[in-house]
Write a structure and sequence with these properties.
With 209 residues, the protein is α/β, with parallel strands linked by helices. Helices cover 59% and strands 13% of the residues. It binds adenosine-5'-diphosphate (ADP), cytidine-5'-monophosphate (C5P) and magnesium ion. Cytidine-5'-monophosphate binds next to helix 3 and helix 4.
Length: 209
């Protein structure tokens, strides 16, 4: 059984490698506006938006065998093992007819980053990084109103801590490779999108088309 699953994963990987997708990682603290801006980027630049958090929440709803584990991790603001998240991202990319993806909320830690690179061989075109104060992010999360189990003050504080300790090193890693495009995300939505547009239009044809 295990080897059959492995064979399926390997086959999916080969198909994805052949597809040579363009990937932009969208990073930033919880509530920095990643999902909001990705919706705008989709409309203007023809990307497909894949939110790792949304894919994990869909996996819980689908009643998958990993559902309870994922649910518990999300409630605690912890990062789900890469194996699970990468499989979801990989399948979503393969199922899509598109070859340009915004991967939002991933990689969340060094394990996510290294495993994604090792499995998919995909290097991001660049990393869009939304910078925002915790004070502002907290305000946004507490009024998000999407019925999320993790938008409560106790879990929010844990998520901020995980972001600083585990996710910022990933941003720094890409910064050292010159791949980070930093955006002031504390401004109103429209102003943030103006800055985002400047970043995308400055890219080569494959990204900006
Ligand atoms: P993330 O995906 O980074 O967690 P969201 O896009 O879900 O963040 O945004 C979190 C909340 O903040 C949502 O309710 C959204 O409408 C709101 N929001 C997003 N961007 C801004 C902004 N620039 N100014 C004020 N509120 C915002
Ligand atoms: O990005 P979002 O805020 O939707 O993520 C919600 C939660 O999903 C995170 O706090 C974390 O528990 C989980 N997650 C994860 N690995 C990712 C992205 C999200 O475990 N790469
Ligand atoms: Mg989001």
């Amino acid at each position: 059984m295990g080897s059959a699953v492995d064979a399926a994963t390997m086959e999916a990987t080969q198909r994805l490698i052949k597809k040579k997708p363009t990937v932009v990682f969208v990073l930033g603290g919880p509530g920095s506006g990643k999902g909001t801006q990705c919706a705008n980027i989709v409309k203007h630049f023809g990307f497909t938006h894949l939110s790792a958090g949304d894919l994990l929440r869909a996996e819980i709803k689908s009643g998958s065998e990993n559902g309870t584990m994922i649910e518990n991790m999300i409630k605690e603001g912890k990062i789900v093992p890469s194996e699970v998240t990468i499989k979801l991202l990989q399948n979503a990319m393969l199922e899509s007819g598109n070859d340009k993806f915004l991967i939002d909320g991933f990689p969340r830690n060094e394990e996510n980053r290294a495993a994604f690179e090792a499995v998919t061989k995909i290097e991001p075109a660049f990393v869009l990084f939304f910078e925002c104060s915790e004070e502002e992010m907290e305000r946004r999360l507490l009024s998000r109103n999407q019925g999320r189990e993790d938008d409560n003050i106790e879990t929010i504080r844990k998520r901020f801590k995980v972001f600083v300790e585990s996710s910022m090193p990933v941003v720094e890693y890409y910064e050292s490779k010159g791949k980070v495009r930093k955006i002031d995300a504390a401004k109103p939505i429209e102003e943030v999108f103006e800055a985002v547009k400047t970043v995308f239009t400055a890219q080569d044809d494959k990204v900006a088309a």
